[in-house]
Every structure is written in C-alpha cells, then in structure tokens.
Amino acid sequence: MPKFPACNVPVAFVAKVMKKDATFIRAGIEQGWLPIGYAKPSEKTGKMSYYISPKLLWEVTGILYQPEKEGCDE
To answer: What is the pTM of this model?
Structure first.
C-alpha cells in the first residue's frame, strides 16, 4: 500500500485527472455517489468546504495523489 500524505486533495486536481468539471466532483461528494471525502457548510457563511482524502481517492479511483508533484506540503 502506498504512503498517503496528511493533506487535503484539491477538488481541481481530482477534476483534472478524472477529466470532469469541478462541479461534478463537488456534487458527487455532496450526494454521496463519489465517496472520496466529505462536504461541510461553514457555520458563518454557509459556503461549502470540501475535504478529499488521499487514501479514499486511491481506494475508490486508483488515483494516487503525490503532493510533492502537485504542490501540497505534507
């Protein structure tokens, strides 16, 4: 099993590698048919925040997020 970084995978990264729009990725997470993370509304603004787990992304899609190549610090 690969080593997974302790950081969030950006929605834009997932959209790019899956060749989908970011709205598609967000909708899948919110509605539960893309179980790679979760969405939570901000208590102050109600704006949705998204967390995509590197491990779940790999388990569900086979995509391995490598932050050293994508600009995310571990």
So the answer is: 0.86
